Every structure is written in C-alpha cells, then in structure tokens.
Amino acid sequence: MNFDLSEDQRLLKDSVGRWLARSYAFEHRARILASPEGWSRATWAQMAELGLLGLPFAEADGGFAGGPVETMIVMEAFGHALVVEPYLPTVVLAGAVLRHGASAEQRRRLVPLITDGSLVLALAHGEPQARWHTADIATRAVEAAGGWRLSGAKSLVLHGESADRLIVSARTGGAPRDPNGIGLFLVDRKAPGVVVHGYPTQDGQRAAEIGFQDVRVPAEDVLGDVANGLPVVEHAIDEAIAAIAAEAVGAMEAALGMTVNYLKTRTQFGVPIGSFQALQHRAADMFIALEQARSMAFLAVMSAADDDGARRRRAMSAAKIQTAKSARFIGQEAIQLHGGIGMTMEYKVGHLFKRLTMIERQFGDLDHHFGCLAAAGSLLDDA
Amino acid sequence: MNFDLSEDQRLLKDSVGRWLARSYAFEHRARILASPEGWSRATWAQMAELGLLGLPFAEADGGFAGGPVETMIVMEAFGHALVVEPYLPTVVLAGAVLRHGASAEQRRRLVPLITDGSLVLALAHGEPQARWHTADIATRAVEAAGGWRLSGAKSLVLHGESADRLIVSARTGGAPRDPNGIGLFLVDRKAPGVVVHGYPTQDGQRAAEIGFQDVRVPAEDVLGDVANGLPVVEHAIDEAIAAIAAEAVGAMEAALGMTVNYLKTRTQFGVPIGSFQALQHRAADMFIALEQARSMAFLAVMSAADDDGARRRRAMSAAKIQTAKSARFIGQEAIQLHGGIGMTMEYKVGHLFKRLTMIERQFGDLDHHFGCLAAAGSLLDDA
Amino acid sequence: MDLRFTDEELAFRREVRAFLRESLPPEIHRKLAEGCRLGKADLVRWTCILHARGWAVPHWPVEWGGVDWDPVRQMIFRDEVQQFPAPETLSFGTSMVGPVIYTFGSDAQKRRFLPRIATLEDWWCQGFSEPGAGSDLAALKTRATRDGAQWVINGQKAWTTLAQHADWIFVLARTDGSARKQQGISFILIDMTSPGISVRPVQTIDGGFEVNEVFFDDVRVPLENLVGAENRGWDYAKFLLTNERSGQARIGLSKARLRRIRALASTPRNGAPVLIEDPVFRRKLAELEVEVRALELTQFRVIADERHKEQGRPNPASSILKIKGSELQQATTELLMDVLGPAGLVRHAESGPAAFDWARGGTSTYFNLRKLSIYGGSNEIQRTIIARAILGL
Amino acid sequence: MDLRFTDEELAFRREVRAFLRESLPPEIHRKLAEGCRLGKADLVRWTCILHARGWAVPHWPVEWGGVDWDPVRQMIFRDEVQQFPAPETLSFGTSMVGPVIYTFGSDAQKRRFLPRIATLEDWWCQGFSEPGAGSDLAALKTRATRDGAQWVINGQKAWTTLAQHADWIFVLARTDGSARKQQGISFILIDMTSPGISVRPVQTIDGGFEVNEVFFDDVRVPLENLVGAENRGWDYAKFLLTNERSGQARIGLSKARLRRIRALASTPRNGAPVLIEDPVFRRKLAELEVEVRALELTQFRVIADERHKEQGRPNPASSILKIKGSELQQATTELLMDVLGPAGLVRHAESGPAAFDWARGGTSTYFNLRKLSIYGGSNEIQRTIIARAILGL
Prior knowledge:
heterotetramer, A: alpha+beta, Butyryl-CoA Dehydrogenase, subunit A, domain 2, Butyryl-CoA Dehydrogenase, subunit A, domain 3, 3 domains, 4-stranded mixed sheet, 4-stranded antiparallel sheet, 11 helices, 10 strands, globular, C: Butyryl-CoA Dehydrogenase, subunit A, domain 2
C-alpha cells in the first residue's frame, strides 16, 4: 500500500498545474465560457501538445500509456482550474469505449486523431426516459445493407454539439431495460438524420439533445459486439466517475483554499472572521469532508481497472456517494462562509459551487448510487 | 387560535410545579428508583390528593374533567422532574381505554379507585413479535362458560409488575395482523395463569413480560366490543404519544436549562465556556430544536381528541417524529456540552438524556412513524 | 388554548384564496409556480390589483391603507399568497421603509411617501450593507454631512437588491463620525434620480441580476429626508431588521414547493417509474413536511405572543423563524433538484430544450436561495442573537 | 501509488485471523461481540495469550518486546483484532505510558516498567484530567513538591478510567508554580498502593463503573519516578495525546458493529419481517459503510504519511481520525439501537428477560460511547486543532 506518485506522475502533475496557472486563469476561462462554442480550440491544441489528449491510450495505438492515476492527476488539476474543455467526453468516456470496445484497427484509426487534437468525440448514451439507469436504452439499431440504421433520441450528451463524431448506444435486441442487446456505433455528427440541439448546463458547460432518424452506420463503424456493448459503456462510465471524483477533489480543494483565505483576510467587528470559533469549526468540517472525498477518489481510481465488474461498481457507487456528500457540503459552506461575494458570477467560488453541484449528479445522484449500493450487498467485504 | 392557558390550567401548572420542586428533588427520585418497586406509593397518594389521578375522567365517572391540555401540563412537569410513577400506564393509557372503551357501569366501578389512588393499572398490548405494529396481536381469547379465557404473551408492559389489574388485548377472531377481531379484557394481575416477569428499562422505569395461560375473564370484565378493541387502544396510544411529547418537552427544557447554566459557570482557559461561539451556536440549535418540539407537542395535544382517526394518527406520527429528532439532538448535545460530568449517574442531565432516549422509541421509533406518515399521504393538507 | 382556526378565520382563508384564483393573472402565476423571476411590470400590475381590492398593505395602519386584521388574519393572508403562489408586494417598501416611516417619520413624510409605496408608484430599495459592513453592519462608512439645507452623501452600498428598478433608496449613513459605532448613524431617504448616484448591477450565480452596487458621489438630499431624529438611525434599523426576520420564514413558499415536488414526483414522464414510489424519497418528503408543519406552528406561537408584548419590541424568537425558515426553503429546493434528476443539469435561461421545461427554475432557484442564510442578518448572526438575547450566554 | 495489499500482507492478515480464531477464549469473544464489559481477569488472561505469541506489544521497539512490523502490518493487526472482535490490550500501559517510557524514560525505568506493562502484571491508569482541567488540561493544579529524595503529591484527578484496578498511575503534576501554564508541569509515575491515595469510583449512565476520582493527600514518590526532565511533562503529554488520537479511530470496531447490525437485521425473529428488507434501513446501513470505508482509507493515508515524517512529530491529520472515528462509532451504535427496536428499551444488567438476550449491550453501549466525543481531547478541541494547525486560522 502506498500513495506516492512516481517520478513521471509528479512531473505530469507539475507541468499540468503550471500550464493551467499560466494559461487558464479565471478571467480567461470566463472569456472561453462566453464564446459561441463554450470551449477553446486553442486550449485544446495546447492539451495535445502537452500530451494530455493521448494520455490513457496504449502506445501501440498512438497514446502515452497513462493509467487511472494519470487521469486522476489531470482531472484534479482541471477541477482546481474549472476547465470546461471536452476532455471528459473525448478522452475519458469515448477513450474508454475505444480502449475496451473497439477493434485494434479502429483504435489505430482513431486514437492518433484524438491524440493530436483533431478529433473531438462524445458519448451519446443517456436517454430522456432513463434517468440514471444505464440499461434503459430505447434507441434502436436495425441491420441494413452493409451496416445499420439508428433511430431514437439521446439526452444530455456532453459536448454533443461540438463533437466531430458520436459514440451512440442502440438496442439491437432485448426489451427496453434489458442489459443485453445493446450495441455501440460510431456516427458522424453531421451525418444525415442526426439532429443536434445544444445548450448550456447549469455550470456553464455544454450538452445536447440529439435525435437520430434512420441514420446509416457502415459496418466498420460498429464498435465491438452489437449485443454486448453495455459492459463497455458501464466500464467507461465507471472510469468517468473516477475522473470526476478527482475533478471534484480539485474543485473542493480550491473552494476550501479560497474560503480559508477569505476567513483570514475578511474583517468584521474589528477582527478577521476566521478568528470566530464557530467559523473555524465549520472550516475544519470542510477539511474533513475534503479528505474523506479524497480517500474515496483514490478508491475509485484504484478500482477503475478492476475486472470484477460488481466489485468495481460497488467501489464507484461508494466513491460517488462520498463525492456527492462532500461536494454538496463544501460547496454550500464555501458560499455561506464567503457571504454575498460568493453569490456573484464575478468571483470564482460560486463557479466552483456550481460545478460541484453538477458533479454531485453527473452519472447518477446520491439516491441512485445508494440504491445501487444497497442492492449490491456489503461494501465491507471488498476491503 | 390561542396558546393561553385558562386560569384553572395556570393554577394546575403552578401547583404541580411547586409540589414537584418541594417533594421530588433529584436525590429523592434516586432513592425512589433504588427502591424494590422502583416507584413510590407515598408520592402516588400525594398525586391522588392533588387530584392528578382523576384528572382526565368525566365528573360523572368520579374524575375532574380535565382534557388533553391538563394532561400536557402534568406530563411536561413530570418530564422536568423525571417522575417515574405509573401515571402514564394508569391514568393516561388505561384511563383512555376506560374512557373510550368501557361501559358507564365499568367506569363508575373503576374510575373512583383510580382517582383515590387505590388502583394501579397497566395496558398489556404489545407483543414480542409486534415490534411497533399495533395490530400485530397473537394473544387469543376464547369464549368459555360465562366469560373468556386468554392465552398468550405480552411484552414491555409498563409497570406491569406493580399494576393491580391489567387491560389485555386479545384476538377473538381474524388473522394475526388483522385490525379487526381484537377484544379488550380486564385481568387481575394475580389471577391464576398470569405470570409476570418485571425488570427495569434503560431509563430506570419498570416494565414486564407477562404470560397468560388459560386465564379466566368473567363477562363483566370485557371492555366494549370484543371484535373492535383496536381503535380504542390506538386512541389510547395516541393520547399517550401526546402525553410523552409533553413529557419530552419538559425533559428537554430541563436539559437545555442545565446546559446553559453549565456553560455560564464552567470555566476553561480562564473564561466561561459559554463565551465560545461554537458552543453558543450549538446551544442556539438546541433551543430551536426545543421550540420545534414544543410546537409539535401542542399539535399532538390539540389532535388527541380528534375523531378523524386518520388525521389524528398523521398528527401523532408527525409529533412523534419531531419529538424523537429533537430529543435525540438535545439529549446528545446536553451530554457533549457538559463533558464528563454529563456521563455520570450522580448528575441529573444524564438521566434526562436516558429518559429522552426512551421517549424517542416508546410507542414507535422514528422509522416506524416515518413509515406511517409516508403511507398516509401529505401532512400539509391537514393544516 | 386552541390551535384550531375559527369558522370566521376559515371563511377568511377561503375568501383570500378565491380572490387570488380570480384576480392573479395566469402568466404571473405560472412564472412563480415554476420558480422564475418576475419582471418589474408584473409586480406593478399585481400591486395595482391588490390595491384595488384594498389589500396592498393590509398590515399597515388603517389610515394609511391598512386593513383592520388581527395578527392571525395577517398570517393567513400571507400564507395564502405564498402558497398559491402569488407575488408578495415589494418588501423594501411595504415591510421595511413603510413601517419605519409610519412609526418614526414626520407627518409630511407619511403623506408624501406612504401612498406611493402602497401602489408601487415608488419602487424602494435598501441601502444598508457596504463592502466593509456586512454582518458588522454598524461598521458602515457612508457619510452624510450637512451643507446648508442639504445632506451631502458620499459612500458605497453593496448587495442592494433590485436597485436597478428603484425610484428611492433608504440608507443608513454616518452623521456623527465621533460617536460610538452604533451611534451617529442616521436613516435618510434618497431619490435615486439625484445626480451623483450610480448603480452597477452584479450578476449572481443563478444567472440573474438582482443585487447591485450603489455609489454616492456628493449626492445632495434635502434635510427633511431624514427620518426621525439625527443619529438615531440604528434604532430604526433594528426595528426594521426584526420585522424583516419574522417575514423571512416564508412557510407558504416552502409548502407550495413541497406540493410541487409531490406533484412532479407523482407524474409519469417518458415512461420512467415515478419517484413517489421510492420509500427513501417518500421519507425525505415526509421529513420536510414535518419540519415545515412544526415551523408553521412555531410561527403561530410567535404571532400569538405578539399580543402580549409591547408594540415594536423585537421578539428574539423571530430568529428561529429566520434560521429554520431559510433552512427549509433551501432544503425544499434541494429535494426539488433530486426530483428533477438529469433535467436539473440543464440551464433554462437561454436555449434550453423544451423537453425539460417541466424542470424550469429548479436548479437556478437552488443557486439563488443560498442567499437566504446570508442576507437579512446571516444565520450565524441569528444564532448569536438566540444565544445572547434568549439564553443569556 | 497502489492501494492494494501485497500478497504478503494478505497472508499476514490471514495469519492474525487464524491466531485469533484459535486462541481467543470463546467467553471473551462472546462478551465483546455483544458489547459487554470485560473483567480485569479477562484482559489479563488474553494479554498473557498474546504475550506467549509475542504479540502483546507489537508496536514497541523490538528490544522491549515489539515485533518488527511496518506501519501497514501494525494497522492490519489492530484492524483484525478490532474486527474479530478480540480485546485490545490496556491502552494506558501499552499505548500511552509505555511509549513515553521507552521514548523519554531512563534505562532503569525501561527495565523496571516496560516488561510488566507488556504482560499486564502492572495495570496502569492515566492521571491527567482534573475537575478544573478538562479541555484546558494545562490548568491542572495537582502539585509535586520536592522533599528530600521524594516528591510529595497533593491534588485530585478526575475521569481516571479503570483506576479501580490499577497498580500504577502516571500523572501530570505542577512542579514549578511560577512558570507559564504549560511549563512547570512534570510527568511522574506513582505506585497506587502509596499511602495517601484514595480512589472513588463514579458510575456512568450506562450503569457501569469505569471512571474514578483519584485523590492524592501528601503522597510520597521517589524522585527517580520522574520521567524525562523536570518541568517538561507537557511535551511528553502532547506526544502521548497525539498517539492516542490516531488510535481512537477504531475502524475495526465500527466494521464489526456494522456486521452485527446486518446480521441482526437479517435474522427473522418471532416471525416479524426482517429489517434488511426496508429500503430506508438499507440506505442508512450503506451510508455508514461508505463513511467507514472512507475513514479506513484516510487512516491508510495517515499511516503511509508517517513514513515521510520525522518520528514522533504529531500529525494534525490524526484529529480527523479522532473526530470521524468517534462519530462513526457513535453513529453505528445508534443504528444498532434502531435494529433492536423495543428490545432496546430493556436494561440487561440485572434481571432482564432472556427473550431479549440477543439485544444485550446495544443501548448501554450507545450510552457509554457518548464519551468518545468528549475524552481524549474533545471533538471541539480537535476541530480547533485542525483549524489552527492545518488551516492556519
């Protein structure tokens, strides 16, 4: 058991941290958010240069052979800086689908394009009726000459409007909530029959509702077994949960840091408000919540590669629960301890709060993951 | 809408308060607790003199025509002083069964004996398998020449060992959890076939497990309709819930008062610990919890006579929930803010905590009443 | 002792409800029910309707347009308005400066200002907080210096809600710099069109524009715009803030939100299972219903208690209403977000998809209502008031 | 970075578990599993068994009976002992005064005391707190004045756990009344059979006798019973208290209790429905399991961190372990009470009915464990440590 970063990992952490401090200041991010696409292709190119976009892929596929720890390092830094670029959909989610579900030929075709920044991907999986249930897929894929035809609707597709290509899950068989009978298809966002309606989410990021009307997919763009795509998606979502748990840790750390700093410098009644014991104790509780979340983010990261799917999902649900609880508590307390200034768009802490509020719910809220965990038996025996 | 006590009610409150302050000091109570029966017949006689034992009964039956507000006044004072006498089983619980379920002839026979202190009663209703479910009755009553014969087991009968007579619920028909088919029977505690095993409860009060082996009950000791006794018991339990909600308010008020006093007088680091803001805020939260519980105790008291059983039970569950939450919070915080001294048997606040812990659970714990309320629809429309 | 409403009170409740049903424009109702922001025009329109009915300022003295309702009827009226939900009148006028003027103001001030507050011809805002004076309000630095027949105001106010619409602002300003902190403060009424005033709107995290910074640069105000006595403004402010506290419970709003939550959770949508079937969800809903009911009764008690108190004396128990009322509004909004599920992630302000319209206002209300535990005397300040004024710590 | 245990560590875990299974007397195991109090004889017996295996004081230096385990193995050992559950050795000796003696004591003290601590031939208790010195420990008033070759001790200690069984007590006493509060305190070892010591047991709310008052009336102690330097006792106490804090997480106990809860909730009893079927109950259980798991990982991190720190330097993060560890022990006991239902109302100490034996120990453990957030530096003190030492407030 050890928590030490390797030499390479420490270098990665330093370089990403330095780059963001230099190139992704809060004011710069505000301008990116206000731009039409809501993210920055210039920043994306810098990420490619830094090697971040190819991080989790095997060298044989054109990547840099990073693992979950490397992704954690990057995402934690992104959480600190509130990065809004399409890293989660392209590199984490779609990246995981490609790693676990695509053929070697497909990976060799696609990974270099991701790595050099010329291909943005999105995972179009969730549907309007599904709430958080991953198997609730009604989009249908019907075999047609030399390929498939997709019809259906996908909801809350992260960066769906900006993506060059979409990874779409669709039912090739089975009843609506059957975990079997789901295939994965690579679809050009501009293909005939694809209708994209993009919009901002509450934290300023972008998502889209996407309709598919008899969209043609050639056979070479089918990813893996057309009846067994769900485990691939679930593994990708589990990796994404680990990634946003790390992102949340970064954002919580930033929120706590800003709060402590504010408590030290803001004076009322002639003294810094950080000298008031009630506020000190609440800051201490924020610290505890942060460290508990950090511990569970480690668990998620370490479980991301676990091949025992049931144990992996228990760990992810547990990590998601702790992340959600800590994120809610730290976010709310950060605003409260800042007072009015925390409520304004001009100040970073409110944006951290909003991002944390979204992370709480992304890939399933507390209730959903408690349901999963309660159904999965005891967590204690996994230790 | 008004919260004012009438002149008579104010007098009652003053006289009970004065009597307890004089005659029921903490040290005196400790001696009573240590006595073989665990309660005091001398105190009981004083209660009779003060008119407390006949309080809720109609004048025609030999009582003093008090209502739920009078019971609240008495029970709140009892909570303050941690009274351990069998008032709840005799006057509140059995009293309510007699008022709602007995014949005029039976009331005329029994109420004067209660009023003058010569008859102690207990309600033997709960059973080992029932947890908190009032309809879960397996004790059976079979008709026999000129009366009935009872067989079964009752659990946690308050003051069951001291009672002269027991009011026993037993099934005359229906399946185990059927709300119909339950009758009520008056049984001499010393009758052949009654086996009583008394023991202390965690707060120092007394209860008993009672077995009934073919116990004979003459026809004149059947209380009301032999197939429809459950609504009578439930009404009695509802009145008891209102009574212990008031008792809890008294105990919480005493615990908060002791805590505030301790915060003012205990010095550490050269100042009274009540000058520490974190402790001030926690005392403020205790005060809020007390006032919220007081409000719901009022609701319970005002609903005790509500003939709409469903609405009455919603109100009682809501009051029980608020009581339990406030009792747990105030009890725990009172100990914590006292520190070590609160953990000792020599000091009253620990006894208040223990009684509050029992009240939390008596007649159903939080989970039980949340279940009742969640099944009963919205509380908001009763307002 | 009787917690039930009398038949007359119940009839009054029905009368208010019927009036709301008949008179509230449906567009305004819909916006409120969905937790969306009203425009100035909406509120002016509704205030005129209330005024026509004689109910714009029912809690005021009858001679200034009030209705002779006892505290219970006042409470029923507010509760019905909040539950319906219908708009409440602009509190800065009707509940803050109005009562200060009719209690402490001159006859000329009463005649001049009160009628226009009642009809919302004058939109008022509150100039109390400053960048350096939040919880420590008495640290305020804005100064009013006398120059002939005028005050000259210099300084900056912060978190001035809806100042962008305001015709008038009431400010606390320091008129005696040598006095102790709480003394030497005066309560002054200022025309927002006065030269030297500038307003900078500040966007809040829900995306809305509600608060402002207001700058005073040699703003000249007639001497007669001083309310009451010079240097006694702190007393009037305390009177005002205590009134504000009691009004902040807004139990009717929490009840309305809980009803919306129950309705949303019971509505099948896209064929997904309804949330109301989930025992954990039902428990959370029941938990909040119990707390709201308890606070409603606590509010009854505070109101009933008012009859026994001398008029105008602050009741520290009103701090309970502020603390629990704000916490319950925040908690109900959290539960609303739980009901929304993924739809809560969508921002509706601009180009959000119509499929999520049912979820409109949920998440942004959650963001917006974080203010409740901060403003009007933060909940930390209220806890300190309870500890000191009630518990004697 | 690797959170998994190595194969060797897993084998070690199995070895410890096998030893416990073979060696722990079943009566002792049953008492612990039911949350009942062990007698002195039980603990002496078990300490001898551990000592025979060489595991009585594994965390000590090897020369004094320790085992050369790294921090991870130490943690695995403690965790297995707590989870089993098996008794932990008497902490006043093995974890408090023992480490102080082998770190700061003289060679003579080491030779004299350490072996008898390891075998529990000497039962130690802790004389720190006083009636006027609880959270403010440095306010202690017990004095040691030098008289020839002896210290003369006068004063009173409070909350002295298990002093009624003790052969020895280690006390903090003031040896220089003129120095600043934290200075002028010395760390002295006192034979409990010395004339002038009296012990008054104090019953706690769970009905047990665990704490005592200890009075010192002209108690004479040889000068050589001073540990380390005169007037430096506060440093040794801080060293000791920080060790204590890390040990207070007792995650293994919370895990064992959660397993007992799950087992009880899954056992049909009298034909009533099992609680584990209730989604609300399952949620509460899952909630605690997540928190315990998180704290376990946090503990791993603190332990891993120890390798990077200089030996003996207190890690303020250990305050997290104390706060959350005590809160989780208390929370698991609350949930246990929920499982017990009506049976939790019964007192088992004396004549409780056998039908409720399965519920034994639940409620009284709940009462008893309220102490956890009070002693060993109250959780309020720990929060202040975090705010100051870690956050710099």
